[in-house]
Amino acid sequence: MASLDAARAQLSESPDIIFSQAIALAFETTCSLKQIPGISVLTFPAMDPLRLTVGFWKLGLSGYKADEILYRDYGVICEIVGSKSITYTLNLGACRDHVQKLLLGIKHLAGINGSYQQVEERMLTVHAPFDDIIMSLIPRDAFFASKRKVRIKESLGEVSGELVCPYPPGIPVLIPGEVITEKAIDYLLHVRSKGTVITGVSDPLLSSIVVCNV
């Protein structure tokens, strides 16, 4: 409550200036990021100007690996990290020193991984969600069905007995009752290999999966 009251007081004193400074700094940082070879910056109309989503796949780096290096070597802390990108947030306390540290770290990554710029990391052509979803059971019936655990690579054609949800983005790839396809397996193994956290499953390492006995 005290922090909320302090934020309210801060905004009431100079509402026209306080956000404009942060937004201007974010815009300047975005322009600088776009000049770094191998780095992609997400931009589209009506997006939050204080959030910077930076892609590292052209460097042959996952978002998780880039975040590990930037945090370890430069003390840069992100808001959220994904398999291909990292999202950073600039707040009212952000200053030029903070963004300079971010830019220095990303320039370092681009420099040491420059050999990947001409040969991008091989990416799977499979992207969730899929257009070939087949439901064998309704989720309720799948929840109460008898189940067994099988190796993930042997689960093709089986009926999922659990929710399989990579985070981020936090959207289920498989739900109970859904037939497990090759595309789903390939996608899940790919994002898991990049460090994505798999939630909803009994085996977070995704070496096995629970399926229904149908």
Automatic annotation (TrEMBL):
Coiled coil: none annotated. The keyword Coiled coil does not apply. One of its GO terms (molecular function) is catalytic activity. Keywords: Pyridoxal phosphate. Its cofactor is pyridoxal 5'-phosphate. It comes from the Eukaryota. Residues 148-194 form the Orn/Lys/Arg decarboxylase C-terminal domain. This is Orn/Lys/Arg decarboxylase C-terminal domain-containing protein. It comes from Clitoria ternatea (Butterfly pea).
